[in-house]
Design a protein that fits this description.
five-stranded parallel sheet; 8 helices; 43% helix
Chain lengths: 209, 209
């Protein structure tokens, strides 16, 4: 089927286990996927590397990327810019890799608007009670941070319907397989196989007369 | 995920191996699927049973079904009516079965228009040459019949783009699994999980204040 990579955007509540899920998926199928790397103007934290966690940019360079149309989407949080460089994503897709962007909702919807074939996946725990339990279970956050995350989740839930697919992260291993199958099934979409369809129409034309 | 069944419509060229594929799918996952049974006004052939191959109806009874809105779609071929009874399909879906309609293209597009959540799958051999080889390989058809089928395939190919997914039937066993995965993945669509999403929004509301 289609040889060009799929663009998949993954969002979900903080505490849904997205990070662990993505790591497990990329480890299990490393030849199949590429994880998009965001550009940002925020300072690198300890252990973060340019080109691995982020492409670290000055605000001036970041603004030049915006103006040159080099970002698929971008947004500003707490005074720092974040964005998805187009080149890397398109290069990986051309090379046949399925590219995953792990970005928040507003960015995800912008990508879908611009590239309607994008697969939008929303990762969620099986229930709100489970989400709260996971946030508390970490044991590292203050009550205020937990309440903030739950409030944010309540706001984010309003956008769940705008995603194409839901992925309930209950059992990590099963969830990795579900995500893999979901993304791989997109290669069978007719819109991803216009070359195959054109060839078929063309070959069959000979029988028309 | 969603407990209600999926409605999947399967079409494809004569010679694509749809019949064998459906039989193998239903045999392998008999608890999961129900095959829709069409109503028809044509005479039963030897070995055909009312309620198994078709619901055999008089023309009068068939027209009453049309008028009463009891058919999802219907069409007339070579003087005989064919149609899909709504009741059976909806009953099976409510019982949690994924229902498969194996119907031709015009009917498929009508179903999609009326029920946009319907999954349209087009089954095709890997190439036109392979289609021709399979039609000839049967060894039971006259040259005229083979040419007619190829001409019809050429016309049908014009509608391939209007299907959601393509299924290339190269290896039967792999194709059965692909179809199964494709239909099962639809249970994760947000549009199939409005109940889950509503519950999640509702539970999270408590954290908003």
């Amino acid at each position: 089927m289609s040889e060009k990579g799929i663009l998949a955007v993954v969002s979900g509540f903080s505490g849904a286990g997205k990070g662990t899920l993505m790591k497990a998926l990329l480890k299990r199928y490393e030849d199949r996927y590429a994880l998009s790397i965001s550009a940002t103007t925020r300072q690198p934290r300890e252990g973060e590397e340019h080109g691995r966690e982020y492409f670290f940019q000055t605000e001036e360079a970041f603004k030049r990327m915006i103006e040159a149309g080099e970002l698929i989407e971008h947004a500003c949080y707490v005074g720092n810019y974040y964005g998805t460089p187009k080149q890397y994503v398109f290069d990986q897709m051309s090379a046949g890799k399925d590219v995953i962007l792990e970005i928040e909702i507003q960015g995800a919807l912008k990508v879908k608007e611009r590239f309607p074939d994008t697969l939008l996946i929303f990762v969620t725990p099986p229930s709100a009670a489970e989400l709260e339990a996971r946030l508390r279970g970490r044991g590292t956050e203050t009550e205020k941070v937990i309440q903030n995350r739950l409030r944010r989740a309540a706001e984010e839930a309003e956008y769940m319907d705008q995603y194409d697919y839901l992925l309930v992260n209950d059992d990590l291993d099963a969830c990795v397989e579900e995500m893999h199958r979901l993304i791989q099934s997109q290669h069978q979409k007719t819109s991803e196989n216009s070359g195959f369809i054109a060839d078929m129409k063309n070959e069959l034309k000979n029988y028309k007369n």
